[in-house]
Amino acid sequence: MNDELTTLAEAGAAAVVTAMATDLWQGTRDAVLRLFHRADRNRRPAIEAQLDGNAALVREAALPDDVRQALFGYWVLELTALLRRDPSCRDSLAHLATEVGAALPDARPASVRAQTNTAHDSGNVFAVQSGNLHVHKPAPSAPPPAPGGSVPSENPPT
User: Fold this and answer.
1) Residue 127 — left, alpha, or beta (φ > 0 → left; ψ -120 to 50 → alpha)?
2) Taking a C-beta distance cutoff of 8 angstroms, is the pair 130, 113 a contact?
3) What would you report as the CA-atom Rg of the chain, rounded to the nearest whole angstrom?
4) Which of 6, 87, 153, 154 is at 20 to 30 A from 61, Cα to Cα?
């Protein structure tokens, strides 16, 4: 259930931040405000101010997609909390995410990515989505200790 809520919140957050500073913004903004109004009328003014402030940041940014990416996590948290407080918002949020995703040009789809990485027994995980990852492992600086805790010497006793 938590994974389902998180995935839905991510889809909703992607729709919200992707719609900012586009022709879809006003309708998306109004739909989000209706969701929060239904769940908690006292939060509506704060959510409205946050939406308007975030949209202004995107609109005024030299790199709006970078701002959208930075805002995505915030809206995931807000929408996850909303869904936990009022699970009846699930269908409306899913509809909003689908509607915005369908209305976007192909070059800017609202997408949700999931990735799970696990390392066990002193293993390492190096992972990335939509980018590059360069791993440089330092060379070992000293030989490993010998059993018993002593460091082997280069000149064994003769």
Assistant:
1) beta
2) yes
3) 24
4) 6
Q: Identify which of 38, 72, 40 has the alpha carbon closest to the alpha carbon of residue 54.
A: 72
Q: Is 43 exposed, middle or buried (0-12, 13-18, 19+ CB in 10 A)?
A: middle
Q: Enter the DSSP assignment of 108.
A: S
Look at residues 43, 36, 39, 46 and name the one whose alpha carbon lies nearest to residue 85.
Answer: 39
Q: At a CB cut-off of 8 Å and minimum separation 6, what does 67 contact?
A: 57, 58, 61
Are the C-beta atoms of 99 and 16 separated by less than 8 Å? no
> What does the block give as tokens for 131?
């980018």
List, run by run, the mean pLDDT of 10-residue segments along the chain (158 residues).
86 95 95 91 92 97 94 96 93 94 64 67 75 73 66 60
Contact 12, 119 (CB under 8 A): no
